From TrEMBL:
Signal peptide stretch: none
Cofactor section: Mg(2+)
Organism: Zingiber officinale
Pfam families linked to this entry: AAA (PF00004), AAA_assoc (PF14363), AAA_lid_At3g28540 (PF25568)
Family from the record: Belongs to the AAA ATPase family. BCS1 subfamily.
Name of the molecule in the record: AAA+ ATPase domain-containing protein
AAA+ ATPase domain sequence ranges: 231-382
A GO term for molecular function: ATP binding
Reactions it catalyzes: ATP + H2O = ADP + phosphate + H(+)
């Protein structure tokens, strides 16, 4: 027993001695190494969202490294064209002299704590990167109080000057190896659709109301904050195929100068992954879910199948086949939470657009005002819409056949897409009114 007590005291003394040695060594090291280091990681939290500070620093240093760095990463700009984007290569360092105040920027990437074997599809994702800023401790007030703010502001300005609208699509998370989800869940291409409200085939009063609503939404940040509501707006576009729903979305994006996130629900594994997709979207964007009635039909068929197999309680629910791992497990409640749940407050200035070909088949919960604020019927081609198409395609404001076309459009259900196809490659002298009618 005495030996155990002696051993316990020895261990306690050893622990205290190690603590003292650590404190002394830390103090001595700080006296010898008078530099402060600040690390800016690429992802905030559990890889939920790319750090805006990191993105701004990346743009700022990308502009500097062309003239000062020795190892530079170069890639074609995602904005399209032949522009090349530069950034610092791994373990590269550049020195910035700010009127006698020197700071050092180091680019590197995080080393995973646990080595794992990648069994996913395609090339393994890169490890998260980071930038490290080092400076002498006597310049702490200047760097922390002024320089970092300048870097973030300058980087955002550079990124804004280089920015073009993007069209995003979600990567499939069904059957993914967890390692694959360390990268962003969205991929993108430059958004080059030229649709404008001025050329949109729709009645002028309806277009004017939509434009006024969009402008009011964009300028009402303080109003939404005052109400305590997320800064978002919901649009439900409904109508037959070919009535211009996708063109309307493109016109909205171009008018607001927003990015578009095209969310394909059948590629989303479950509600959790759908929430991650929402978190990764940037502010000032339009999130689009097209043909939502198709997904509702899948959910309804799945529900009926389960109910039939349970047989009104005659068969245990445990015996019902589970949804395959290769199928989406997204549910209607999950979609409703995606549209206006708690997580919609993470970010702002977002517009959520749902499209459907069958308005009546939608669940009432999806059509509820406040969730989908504006319902826009994309109808068959009216005479007023035809005149806009004639101006777009033929550059004419009137024609002797317009009266006949007006009567034909009133008697037949013709979509704007069908009218546009009839007018394609024609001139004002050979407008085929019968072709317009035949497309009804």
């Amino acid at each position: 027993m005495e030996r155990l007590e002696s051993f316990g005291k020895l261990a306690e003394w050893g622990s205290s001695a190690l603590s003292i040695i650590f404190r002394v060594s830390t103090y001595v090291w700080r006296r010898i190494y008078p530099y402060i280091e600040i690390t800016f990681t690429e992802y905030a939290g559990e890889h939920l969202k790319r750090s805006e500070a990191y993105a701004a620093i990346d743009a700022y240093l990308g502009d500097l490294c062309r003239d000062t760095a020795f190892r530079i990463r170069a890639m074609t700009s995602n904005e399209g064209g032949d522009n090349v984007v530069f950034s610092m290569d791994d373990n590269e360092e550049i020195v910035v002299d700010l009127d006698g105040v020197k700071v050092w920027w180091l680019a590197s990437k995080a080393v995973p704590r646990v080595t794992s074997i990648y069994l996913g599809r395609g090339a393994p994702p890169e490890d998260p990167r980071y930038y490290r800023l080092a400076f002498h401790h006597r310049h702490r007030d200047f760097v922390v109080g002024h320089y970092i703010s300048f870097v973030l502001s300058k980087g955002k300005q550079i990124a804004a000057d280089q920015r073009k609208n993007k069209l995003y699509t979600n990567k499939s998370t069904i059957g993914c190896h967890p390692y694959e989800l360390r990268e962003t869940l969205w991929s993108h291409v430059p958004f080059e659709h030229r649709a404008k409200f001025e050329t949109l085939a729709m009645e002028e009063n309806k277009k004017r109301g939509i434009v006024e609503d969009l402008d009011r939404f964009r300028s009402n940040r303080d109003y939404y904050r005052k109400l305590g509501k997320p800064w978002k707006r919901g649009y439900l576009l409904y109508g037959p195929p070919g009535t211009g729903k996708s063109t309307m979305i493109a016109a909205m994006a171009n008018h607001l100068d927003y990015d578009i996130y095209d969310l394909e629900l059948t590629s989303v594994k479950d509600n959790t992954d759908m929430r991650k997709l929402l978190i990764e979207t940037k502010d000032k964007c339009i999130i689009v879910i097209e043909d939502v009635d198709y997904m509702l039909d899948l959910w309804n068929r799945r529900k009926k199948l389960i109910e039939a197999q349970i047989g009104a309680g005659k068969v245990k629910a445990a015996l019902v086949p589970k949804v395959s791992d290769e199928e989406s497990k997204v549910t209607l409640p999950g979609l409703l939470n995606f549209i206006d749940g708690l997580w919609t407050s993470c970010g702002g200035e977002r517009i959520i657009v749902l499209t459907t070909n069958n308005y009546e088949s939608l669940d009432p919960a999806l059509k509820r005002r406040g969730r989908m604020d504006i319902h826009v019927e994309m109808s068959y081609c009216s005479y007023e819409a035809f005149k806009i198409l004639a101006k777009n395609y033929l550059n004419i404001d009137g024609h002797q056949l317009f009266r006949k076309i007006k009567r034909l459009l009133a008697e037949n259900e013709v979509t704007p897409a069908e009218v546009a196809e009839a007018l394609m490659h024609k001139s004002g002298d050979d407008v085929d009114t019968q072709e317009v009618a035949d497309r009804a």
